[in-house]
Amino acid sequence: MSKKILGIGNAIVDIFVKVNDDFLLKNKITKGSMKLIEKREYENLIKIIKIERIEAGGSVANAMAGIAYLNGNSSFIGKINSDEFGKIYKESLEKINVNFAYIERYEDLPTGVSIIFVTPDSERTMCTYLGISSRLSKNNIHENNIKDLKIIFLEGYLWDKGVSEEMFRHTIYLAKKNKIEIAMSLSDIFCVRRHRKDFLQLLKSDLNILIGNENEINELTNKNNLSDSINQLKKLNKLIIVTRGEKGSLAIQNNNVINCESFKPNQILDLTGAGDLFAAGFLKAYVDNTDIKKCLETGSKLATKIIEKFGARLT
Questions:
Q1: How large is the C-alpha radius of gyration of the chain?
Q2: Residue 219 CB: number of other CB atoms within 10 A?
Q3: Residues 153, 181 contacting (CB under 8 angstroms)
Q4: What sections of the chain are H helices per DSSP?
Q5: Per-residue pLDDT for the chain (315 aa), expressed as one digit of tens each?
Q6: Regarding beta strands 239-243 and 249-253, do their DSSP bridges make them parallel or antiparallel, or are they unpaired?
Q7: Which of 118, 168, 291, 304 is the most exposed place for a label (fewest CB within 10 A)?
Q8: Strand order across the beta sheet in which 4-8 lies
Q9: Can you state the percent helix, strand and coil of the chain, rounding each to 5?
Q10: Close Cβ partners of 33 (under 8 Å, ≥ 6 residues apart)
Q11: Which of 170, 180, 185, 97 is nearest to 146 (CA)?
Q12: C-alpha of 217 from chain center
């Protein structure tokens, strides 16, 4: 049995809706954007859309699904309500053999939802209502959930002052106590911009593995190019993974840089989930004690596979 990986992240139900450009204009939604919306806007939108497809989403949940696809042993903790979307969320993870290690109950906010508007040109525009997912707290992370783990994978999106930071630090404390490695994704460039100082401190003090794309890494180091970022990060003696799209990927480890070329897709249908599936492939190979170059290759192959289809799931 493969070693266990636990992902902790925002539990978001992805709702796919086909619309035309006029719909976006009429509802003042900027095409190609991802914006956070409040409860009222979410309730107004949900009334006027025709749902095409629903699946469990969220960056780390996508990665755990990718690990399960590779026959890995993955679990996920994310906060849901015991409402209709919460039940759909839990079932769609368990159906693909991802253990959902959170006990849902009735909450005052609904399960988080991302409405993904797909226009005829295949462009995606997202309106995300975090709902109860943003209230994941240290009380939701129990020591018995993390026994026998090899890695805990956290997303940068979770890092906000207050309840989320407290949960993050509690998880790190439990991981260190139980000698479990901690990996984190940088999530997106704006997330890094907001929390650069904290993320650098986390990397120096707590993380074993950091995963980010080239822009996120340069934002973290406050450098204009990757070679300057690499020179700075080499000094930290951490495993840092940088994805570079069609330029491939690289790992910074013990003052060494290990490069990996990308794999050419047969077609590019949708870039959603490429980073999440790269992380899945990398982490699955890593817990199987594969050498780092092979871990990069496994991640790249999975990322290539996901961009050849719609959505962030390979099942």
A1: 19
A2: 21
A3: no
A4: 21-26, 39-48, 59-69, 84-94, 163-177, 189-205, 214-221, 226-233, 274-287, 292-307
A5: 568 999 999 999 999 899 999 999 999 999 988 888 999 999 999 999 999 988 889 999 999 999 999 999 999 999 999 999 999 999 999 999 999 989 888 999 999 999 999 888 878 888 999 999 989 999 999 998 888 899 999 999 898 777 889 999 999 999 999 999 999 999 888 889 999 999 999 999 999 999 999 999 999 999 999 999 999 999 999 999 999 988 999 999 988 999 999 887 777 765 667 889 999 999 999 999 999 999 999 999 999 887 667 666 666
A6: antiparallel
A7: 291
A8: 99-100, 73-77, 4-8, 149-155, 181-185, 209-213, 239-243, 249-253, 256-260
A9: 45, 25, 35
A10: 125, 126
A11: 180
A12: 16
Q: Which residue type is seen at 51?
A: I
pTM of the model: 0.91
90/97 Cα distance (integer angstroms): 11
How would you classify the pairing of strands 209-213 and 124-129? unpaired
Could you name the CATH architecture of 4-10+59-83+97-105+134-307? 3-Layer(aba) Sandwich (3.40)
Tokens, residue 287: 């817990």
In one-letter notation, the amino acid at residue 175 is A
